[in-house]
Amino acid sequence: MRTITLRRSLVALFAAAISFGAITQAQAASQDKSVLRIGYQKYGTLVLLKAKGSLEKRLAEQGVEVKWTEFPGGPQLLEGLNVGSIDFGVTGETPPVFAQAAGADLLYVAHEPPAPTSEAILVPKDSPLKSVAELKGKKVALNKGSNVHYLLVRALEDAGLKYSDVQPVYLPPADARAAFERGSVDAWVIWDPFQAAAEQQLQARTLRDGTGLVDNHQFYLATKPYAQKNPEVISALIEEIRAVGEDSKADPDKVTEQVAPLLGLSKEITSIAVKRQGYGAQFITPDVIVAQQKIADTFTDLKLIPKKLSIADVIWTPPAKVAQAAQ
């Protein structure tokens, strides 16, 4: 009963939107290239792209207006994508799996290089816990269906524990931090910049980050109708994301100066998050599909999604000339 309830609660985050499927399809089908609606989170290259303003200038030449919407996490962003409020967005590895399981009409467009240190299992500075194995029976806060969900599963497996050996407490980042500070949870699985902020402001200790466990790719996703109808817009968008990533690798201090006020965080905290991030967006490759399929199969085996998925079925294929130029 617990497994069925848990599975339903996870998939329900996206499935509630599926009842509007016919409306969503109509909205997406009528959406032309005059507007590109982008969903972003408080981290990552899209924040940098928004601040730079280069995308707006480039797409204006094609008659395309860019609109931005911020989301607290990947699951919420993909729910927005599913109901037709955005056309494109970025999330970690796990949210697209749950969204696909719930029937979202999405396509993987591109990915960033691995960034395993930009997510971690944190414990309070005075916590007696010294290893993941000691989490058995403990309360662990996380954003359900997010990238850190898979990190927790893998970390527990590596420590000889099952997912059912801990008490997951599903909370979005702001609420999870409050619970972490109150001491009402024993650990918190979180990503940057929330991770860096907790480390610096609360002196939270890292019990385990993603090193040796997960790739922690960031994925760029689009609604299937928009990507298929507007390949030139999507291609230009990925080119701009890649260019911002190259700038970031070349001068992380400049990026920190630019982004810190946008995040409302100190330069010290922002710098940590910026330097741990992966940069260099690329279209989806076969090895990335294999890795993402492993994540999907893991959640299927845990009965957290109801059926086996095929990641290869939801990969966007860029125009031939664009794919060749990216190689």
Task: Characterise the protein shown here.
- The chain is of the alpha/beta class and 327 residues long.
- The protein has two domains: 2-114 and 217-326, D-Maltodextrin-Binding Protein, domain 2, CATH 3.40.190; 116-209, Periplasmic binding protein-like II (D-Maltodextrin-Binding Protein, domain 2, 3-Layer(aba) Sandwich), CATH 3.40.190.
- It is 49% helix and 16% strand.
- It contains 15 helices and eleven strands.
- It has helices at residues 2-18, 21-30, 45-52, 54-60, 74-82, 95-101, 147-158, 173-182, 194-201, 224-229, 231-250, 252-263, 267-276, 286-301, 320-326; strands at residues 35-40, 65-70, 88-91, 106-111, 119-123, 139-142, 167-170, 187-191, 205-209, 219-223, 282-283.
- The strands form two sheets. A six-stranded mixed β-sheet has the order 2-1-3-10-4-11, with helices on both faces. Strands 7-6-8-5-9 form a five-stranded mixed β-sheet, with helices on both faces.
- Helix 7 links the parallel strand 6 and strand 7.
- Helix 1 (2-18) packs across helix 5.
- The N and C termini lie far apart (49 Å).
